């Protein structure tokens, strides 16, 4: 394939960079709201043993429980974890892109 | 001998536009026109108040500057007209631009099936070579559709076999769209005018001067006169005298037979390249003369019939593919503009014949041609011969520059020679031996004028080529191949600048790096499992991490132990890498697939207008 047809097939020569901050906010929102909604969902469903599996997260998130108070803590922990994961993914991605682009 | 700053040879669209552009910048010129009226091939002939053009001239352009010029010159007299055109083949009418359902229905079941089979066959076994027009069209439409809708008409127009016509001609009309260009057109719209209206709509409608295309050029001549320039008609330039790489004077013959000579400091020619080379005095090197003699032109003749009938057919024009008649196309001028006929109860039809000047028909008398045309029209079932009241004939030599296998080499040789002159520019359709429409010719006129005015060099040869950038209403300073691409044209700055559009697309469609995303997602997932496992191990208890240990179902050898945390890190990392890598690839692939789909749709749209 000649250079002409090659560039015809090229939509963009740019390799995307990930905005770490933006990905952190997105993942943070997803994590926080996700855990918050899941907790509330289980509370509203009720039953004998409310959210016994979700409760296991307390192994990692100190003080978390499937309760109304726990839902707020879950919001905080979820957001924090999601934010850190998102930011880390963005950071590592950009570093690797930088190294490979050299 | 009269002396003028700029001498323009030919008062067609290219020459008059050059003079107009010069005039707007306070530079007067002398325009020498061989004919009795201005407009060249885009003139309008008036026969007993029935007006008609050489063919039918739609005004449409993707170059905003041209659209602006047309409006500037003609103002309210520029009408927007609906387009209706069909193909006549085998006693049937087919919509044109082609519509699949209409075409297949008109062909009948058996032929439609054969068309589908031959199309499928071409898709599976395409022609490996695409040098000539036949191969090019067959690769896109299949053999049978080519035979029905392209072969006869194209051969009528060009007078040579489709295998002799270079594939360039088709490719030039449906340019190889880059993915980026297709996406830009789809997302930002093709720029067709100042406000960027969508050009594709012009397939269904077009602009047309109230009294035909000649009105545009007659008005342009008046405006040019207002700038102090002069148009002399009936002067055929026969000699172009030059010395030391500079042209100093042109001479020729007036219609009275008198010898005339004009000096100038700059010269712009729209003469056919062949004639230009023959006129050079002293003569160019033999190989240049030989190249010029190798250029071929197709001639054109139109028989106009005045018919005593209000409505003959609703189309602006009909392509006549039927091989049993010689006529190639028929125009109904009152459908172009109702002002083209003096009496609405009459219709004037233009029967178009594409000929070589050595063909017998070229020398037939007008009466014989009118009789012949009337007979062919009746044969096609279009008119009742008894309704024909009057008629006339117009012959136009060198209406089409022929794209045969050798023309490119010939043009290259001539171009190299002409580029040794610093004050002579050749522009326009025959001046560049290019199948230009008016708009392309006009752009070359504007460029020539700007070159004379000392602006950065504009390459007139780059107009209407595969490599050009400005046709879509943009210009760039990038050097493309051997051609200098024109600098940004100032008029366009009120639009979103090209670089920004380019940047926008580059950014929006920027690729994700699959390896990088794989590494990032892999590292994070590995670490997540490692940290989770370590926390649970540190916490201890009778049964450590019963739920997390279920991951062992997916990660071979994983347990909630110190050793297991490393296994989890490694395998989770690999799994995460796979997810990240495929996610990025999928996203890049779908972006490209989307762009390719857009391009395919646009190219298909362009292919439907191949005959125009
Ligand atoms: C059948 C047909 C249909 C067309 N339809 C369309 C259409 O729908 N839309 C569109 O935009 N374009 C159309 N075109 C193309 C359009 O006509 C041309 O692009 C346009 O007229 C070219 O302008 P030009 O000035 O380059 O050349 P021309 O129109 O050829 O003008 C050149 C002028 O130079 C004069 N000249 C030549 N030699 C000499 C000499 N030695 N001395 C003095 N004067 C000389 C000629 O007499 C002529 O007036 C069509 C063309 C044809 C043949």
- Ligands in the structure? flavin-adenine dinucleotide
- The CATH superfamily of the domain at 2-57 and 212-294 and 404-465 in chain B appears as FAD/NAD(P)-binding domain
Tell me what portion of residues of chain A adopts beta-strand conformation.
under 5%
| Separation of the first and last Cα atoms of chain A | 26 Å
| Strand and helix order of chain A | HHH
Distance between the termini of chain B: 45 Å
CATH class of the domain at 2-57 and 212-294 and 404-465 in chain B: Alpha Beta
CATH architecture of the domain at 2-57 and 212-294 and 404-465 in chain B: 3-Layer(bba) Sandwich
Protein described:
- The complex is a heterodimer of chains A (102) and B (612).
- Chain A has 102 residues and is mainly α.
- Chain A has a domain of 65 residues.
- Chain A has 3 helices and no strands.
- Helices cover 66% and strands 0% of the residues of chain A.
- In chain A, helix 2 packs antiparallel against helix 3.
- Chain A is elongated.
- Chain B is an alpha/beta fold.
- Helix content of chain B is 41%, strand content 20%.
- Chain B has 19 helices and 19 strands.
- In chain B, the strands form 4 sheets. In chain B, strands 1, 2, 9, 10, 11, 12, 13 and 19 form an 8-stranded mixed sheet that branches. A 7-stranded mixed sheet of chain B has the order 7-6-15-16-17-14-18, sandwiched between helices. Chain B has a two-stranded antiparallel sheet with strand order 3-4.
- In chain B, strand 11 and strand 12 form a beta hairpin.
- In chain B, helix 1 packs parallel to helix 9 and helix 11 crosses helix 14.
- The two termini of chain B are 45 Å apart.
- About 7% of the residues of chain B have low confidence.
- At the A-B interface, helix 1 and helix 3 of A face helix 8, helix 17, helix 18 and helix 19 of B.
- Bound molecules: flavin-adenine dinucleotide.
- The site of flavin-adenine dinucleotide has 36 residues of chain B, from helix 1, strand 2, strand 10, strand 18 and helix 15.
């Amino acid at each position: 394939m000649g250079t002409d047809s090659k560039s015809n097939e090229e939509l963009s020569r740019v390799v995307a960079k990930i905005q770490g901050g933006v990905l952190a906010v997105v993942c943070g929102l997803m994590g926080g709201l996700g855990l918050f909604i899941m907790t509330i969902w289980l509370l509203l469903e009720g039953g004998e043993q409310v959210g016994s599996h979700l409760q296991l997260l307390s192994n990692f998130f100190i003080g978390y429980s499937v309760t109304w108070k726990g839902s707020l803590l879950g919001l905080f922990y979820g957001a924090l974890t999601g934010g850190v994961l998102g930011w880390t993914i963005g950071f590592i991605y950009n570093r690797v892109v930088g190294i490979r682009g050299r | 001998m009269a002396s003028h700053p700029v001498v323009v040879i030919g008062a067609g669209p290219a020459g008059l536009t050059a003079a107009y552009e010069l005039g707007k910048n306070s530079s007067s010129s002398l325009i020498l026109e061989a004919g009795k009226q201005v407009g060249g091939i885009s003139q309008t002939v008036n026969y007993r108040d029935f007006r008609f053009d050489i063919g039918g001239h739609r005004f449409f352009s993707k170059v905003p500057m041209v659209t602006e010029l047309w409006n500037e010159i003609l103002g309210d007299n520029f009408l927007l007209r609906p387009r209706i055109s069909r193909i006549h083949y085998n006693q049937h009418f087919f919509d044109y631009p082609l519509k699949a359902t209409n075409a297949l229905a008109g062909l009948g079941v058996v032929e439609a099936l054969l068309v589908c089979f031959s199309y499928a066959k071409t898709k599976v076994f395409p022609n490996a070579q695409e040098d000539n027009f036949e191969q090019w069209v067959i690769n896109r439409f299949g053999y049978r559709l080519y035979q029905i809708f392209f072969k006869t008409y194209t051969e009528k127009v060009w007078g040579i076999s489709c295998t002799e016509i270079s594939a360039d001609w088709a490719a030039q009309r449906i340019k190889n769209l880059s993915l980026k260009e297709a996406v830009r057109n789809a997302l930002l719209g093709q720029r067709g005018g100042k406000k960027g209206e969508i050009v594709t709509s012009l397939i269904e409608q077009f602009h047309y001067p109230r009294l035909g295309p000649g009105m545009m050029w007659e008005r342009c001549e008046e405006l040019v006169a207002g700038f102090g320039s002069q148009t002399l008609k009936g002067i055929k330039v026969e000699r172009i005298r030059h010395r030391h790489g500079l042209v100093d004077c042109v001479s020729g013959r007036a219609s009275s037979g008198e010898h005339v000579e004009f000096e100038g400091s700059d010269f712009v020619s729209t003469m056919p390249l062949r004639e230009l080379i023959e006129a050079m005095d002293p003569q160019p090197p033999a190989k240049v003369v030989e190249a010029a003699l190798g250029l071929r032109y197709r001639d054109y003749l139109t028989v106009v019939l005045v018919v005593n009938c209000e409505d003959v057919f609703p189309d602006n024009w009909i392509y006549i593919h039927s091989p049993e008649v010689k006529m190639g196309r028929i125009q109904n001028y009152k459908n172009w503009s109702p002002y083209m006929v003096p009496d609405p109860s009459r219709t004037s039809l233009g029967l178009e014949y594409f000929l070589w000047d050595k063909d017998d028909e070229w020398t037939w008398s007008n009466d014989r041609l009118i009789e012949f045309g009337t007979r062919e029209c009746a044969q096609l079932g279009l008119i009742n011969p008894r309704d024909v009241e009057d008629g006339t004939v117009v012959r136009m030599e060198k209406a089409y520059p022929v794209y045969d296998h050798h023309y490119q080499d010939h043009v290259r040789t001539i171009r190299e020679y002409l580029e040794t002159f610093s004050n002579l520019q050749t522009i326009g359709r025959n001046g560049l031996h290019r199948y230009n429409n008016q708009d392309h010719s006009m752009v070359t006129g504007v460029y020539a004028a700007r070159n004379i005015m000392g602006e950065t060099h504009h390459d007139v040869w780059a107009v209407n080529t595969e490599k050009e950038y400005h046709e879509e209403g943009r210009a760039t300073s990038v050097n493309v191949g051997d051609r200098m691409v024109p600098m940004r044209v100032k008029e366009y700055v009120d639009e979103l600048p090209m670089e920004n559009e380019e940047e926008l697309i580059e950014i929006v469609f920027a690729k994700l790096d699959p390896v990088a995303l794989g590494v990032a997602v892999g590292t994070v997932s590995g670490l997540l499992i490692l940290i989770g496992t370590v926390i649970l191990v540190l916490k201890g208890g009778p049964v450590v991490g019963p739920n997390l240990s279920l991951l062992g179902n997916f990660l071979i050898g994983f347990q909630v132990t110190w050793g297991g945390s490393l296994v989890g890190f490694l395998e989770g990392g690999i799994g995460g890498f796979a997810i990240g890598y495929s996610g990025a690839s999928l996203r890049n692939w779908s972006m490209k697939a989307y762009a390719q789909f857009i391009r395919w749709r646009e190219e298909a749209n362009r292919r439907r207008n191949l005959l125009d």
